[in-house]
Amino acid sequence: MLTSKIIATGILKAVTVIVLTALSLYFLYQIQSVLIYLVVALILTLIGNPILDFFKRRLKFNHVFATIATLFIFILIVAGFIMLFIPLILTQGQNLSLLNTAEIEKSILQLINKISIFLESHQIDSAKMLKEANVTSKINFNFIPNFLNTILGTISSFGIGLASVLFITFFFLKDRVLFIVGAKKLIPDSHEDQILHSLEKINILLSRYFIGLLLQLFIVFILYLIVLLIFGAPNAIVIAFLCAVLNIIPYIGPLIASILAAILTMLSNLGSDFQTEILPTTIYVLIGFWIVQIIDNNLSQPIIFSKSVSSHPLEIFLVILIAGFLFGILGMIIAVPLYTILKVIGKEFFPENKVIQLLTKNI
Q: What domain range is 236 assigned to?
């Protein structure tokens, strides 16, 4: 029979659990940067393990020198990327005057004026409509420089994060055996094999997924760049790079990228005639971007992602769609990695479930 003491004890335990859970979540939120460093370092470790083994087996390096050589390769790749892209992006970004709100407002006003003149030449009284609507007063021009400042600032000031990731990666590679032994001691004996196998499978699938994501973004960047160069769009590298970054957001990102490409293309051609150069170039660029998206959505993206996480393209689409409805853009970005983790855990701990058997048959 329940007594007041038992009820009070139960309530106290429940409150304690809730408070501890809330404090744990708050703590994790506060150290989210450290968690991101650990995840990135883990992915680099997974990528670096085959390279490390190559140095040890083929070149007969000892373990420490093999670890240093593997890390050196990562540093060379990052340095090469910075030397190749960042100066070009910064230079072209300055040419576009995209980091100056006053300049971009002035440019957009000039563009609106050119559009008005073009429409009036075709007997469309748009100037009056634009003035009555007072479009410019309703647009917050800060969003473009803020957005670009965020991207360029992240790229140009990630030195501390990069150093932290490389430092953590070094010890993950160097002491991987010690970490594995330590993890085994913390795992309950009854579930040791299941948990270790799950972690191994999750690591493999997620490393393949992130490599696939980088490959997909690189392919999209190259295709965007080709389109912009074919049609003579100024500042092609920075426009292609920014639009490729937006493809991280599934389905919505490419739409935003197309709109951004159209705006930046028109702003880059302000010195030209609207009817003969600005409008045709922008239309051609949009058509080219849509063709790139057709290629990406039907070839590169399904093949890369379905192969990397062993899921059907329709399955991935539905997961992203549901995550988007539930959690917005952030949900769409993390949908595939989280779904992959849940599939692996489900297969290891509930292998008899028919739904899980159907979803994990390729894992």
A: 189-363
